[in-house]
């Protein structure tokens, strides 16, 4: 891969030494990087053109990571966003994920873990391609990557495409994973722990509130496609299930 073809990763953190370290590690893995000292500086650049993935610190001067993520989502639902957070910032982590971040890393973290998470997100999101892109011939899909159909719901794990009654629904990577986990076994209750494991395969050590928040976002997006959508049921004390389609 030529350097110019490599995905561009934006690193936004007011800790200059951390920015340099992450940029060097990602460049060694073949990615291009750009760094920003605060959210406002990054947003000014993003308005001119978005990167392929963004790594955001939550606590920053001028414009924090939460607000920057909101603004990114106003431009793109697909761009993968990873938060950097301290271990005592659970509320902010949950809030960040609720507004559209795809993953998070607690400081301190290993560079190997960061690279692994970045590659997972690129594998999921980049294969989706731009909306409306023509489909090309594909090789056989590995287990777990086959299209999923459940009544009026259609999901394509490789392309990260979702539709309800033929209407396209844009989900983040995390939202897609949760919905796909429900859709693969309609009528079966998935516990919050199981949905966390599906959403964050490298680290499911998060609170139940995270799943609840993501399910609310998934419901809202599906209701925008169909005001009568009610297929996701909460099962008190257990988790969620997707209603089995009627025969």
What tags apply to this protein structure?
247 residues; alpha/beta; Rossmann fold; Arc Repressor Mutant, subunit A; 2 domains; four-stranded antiparallel beta sheet; 12 strands; elongated
Task: Indicate the topology.
Elements: E1 8-12, H1 16-28, E2 32-36, H2 39-46, E3 53-57, H3 65-75, E4 81-86, H4 90-98, E5 103-107, H5 111-126, E6 148-150, E7 153-156, E8 161-164, E9 167-169, H6 173-183, E10 190-191, H7 192-199, H8 208-225, E11 232-235, E12 239-242
Multimeric state of these chains?
A: single chain
What summary fits the major beta sheet?
A: 5 strands, parallel
- State the separation between the terminal residues, measured CA to CA: 49 Å
Tally of alpha and pi helices: 8
Question: Overall mean pLDDT score?
Answer: 83
Taking all Cα atoms into account, the compactness measure Rg is 18 Å
What is the annotated CATH architecture of the largest domain?
3-Layer(aba) Sandwich
Q: Under CATH, the topology of the largest domain is which?
A: Rossmann fold
In CATH terms, the superfamily of the largest domain is: Response regulator
- Which strand order do you get reading across the main beta sheet? 2-1-3-4-5
Poorly predicted regions? 130-142
The total of beta strands comes to: 12
Structural class determined from secondary elements: alpha/beta
Measured by DSSP, the beta-strand proportion falls in 15-25%
């Amino acid at each position: 891969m030529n350097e110019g073809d490599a995905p561009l990763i934006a690193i936004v953190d007011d800790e200059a030494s951390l920015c340099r370290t992450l940029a060097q590690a990602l460049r060694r893995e073949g990615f291009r990087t750009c760094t920003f000292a605060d959210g406002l500086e990054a947003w000014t650049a993003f308005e001119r053109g978005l990167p392929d993935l963004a790594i955001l610190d939550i606590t920053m001067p001028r414009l924090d990571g939460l607000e920057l993520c909101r603004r990114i989502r106003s431009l793109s639902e697909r761009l993968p966003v990873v938060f950097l957070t301290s271990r005592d910032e659970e509320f902010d982590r949950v809030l960040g994920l609720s507004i559209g971040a795809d993953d998070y890393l607690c400081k301190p973290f290993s560079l190997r873990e960061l690279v692994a998470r970045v590659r997972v997100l690129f594998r999921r999101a980049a294969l989706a391609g731009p909306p409306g892109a023509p489909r090309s011939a594909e090789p056989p899909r590995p287990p777990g990557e086959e299209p999923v159909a459940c009544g009026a719901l259609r999901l394509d794990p490789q392309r990260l495409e979702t539709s309800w009654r033929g209407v396209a629904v844009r989900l983040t990577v995390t939202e897609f994973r949760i919905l796909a986990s429900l859709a693969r076994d309609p009528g079966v209750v998935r516990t919050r722990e199981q949905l966390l494991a599906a959403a964050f395969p490298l680290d499911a050590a998060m609170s139940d509130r995270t799943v609840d928040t993501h399910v609310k976002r998934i419901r809202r997006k599906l209701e925008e496609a169909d005001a009568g959508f009610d297929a996701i049921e909460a099962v008190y004390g257990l988790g969620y299930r997707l209603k089995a389609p009627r025969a």
